[in-house]
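Thread: Modeling a multi-component assembly for a lab meeting

Hi all, long-time lurker, first post. My supervisor asked me to bring a structural picture of a complex we are working on to next week's group meeting, and I have zero experience with this. I have the sequence lines for every component (222 residues in total). Could someone generate the structure of the whole assembly? Inputs are pasted exactly as I received them:
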Amino acid sequence: MAASGGGRDVLGIYRRLVRRFGPAGWWPGETAFEVCLGAILVQNTGWTNVEKALDRLRRAGRLSFEGLRDLPPSRLGPLIRASGTFRVKASRVRAFLDFLGEAYGGRAEAMRAEDPLVLRRRLLAVHGIGPETADSIVLYAAGLPVFVVDAYTRRVFSRLGLLDGRLGYDEVQRFFMDRLPRDAALFNDYHAQIVRLAQDFCRPCPRCPVCPLDGLCPKRGV
DNA sequence: GGCCAGGACACCA
DNA sequence: TGGTGTCATGGC
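Re: Modeling a multi-component assembly
Sure thing. I ran the full set together rather than chain by chain. Output:
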């Protein structure tokens, strides 16, 4: 792999972003449990709405496994209303709570001791947890090395001309993991860089201003 | 008022 | 197996 500091290779693009913006190391959430909840609530939603829902849970003293484990979806729904599709998400959070209780005694931190692929497979078996949500939990809550693919990842890299936007989730994930060292801290910060880039610059056309990846984005300035 | 936002699932051909 | 509809709120 050509691992230059300023190339179009996957690691080179990361280094370029870090040089320009600094590390973004990140997932908004105080605890592993909160990260898990955020990963479910953010499905097809903007993070600002998720923050409202998490704030409401926090104010209600429910932002913990113990605070939520006995709450039926009918009572959970109103608390997470701001994050959208709240009936659907209430049942998904309920399913995750059942899983967390049975598999890890309600301790999200206990997932850290798991093998990443085993944890991923177990999460995917939970109703309402798909590939992106599972990977977000594995990487950001458990701190284990899997690369998270989301709409931002697809947008940025397809616009750079490096990814076919029609590829499936697993194929896109393999694209990154085949080209990067298996390092949770790197995967964490890389995804954070992509999110920041997508939110601040690489907006859906025609709303994107001048791209900060000068010379990389073929649509810069659109 | 319309469109979009860090998905996942059920259903159908 | 791939395409489509559904869930639903809040910001712009």
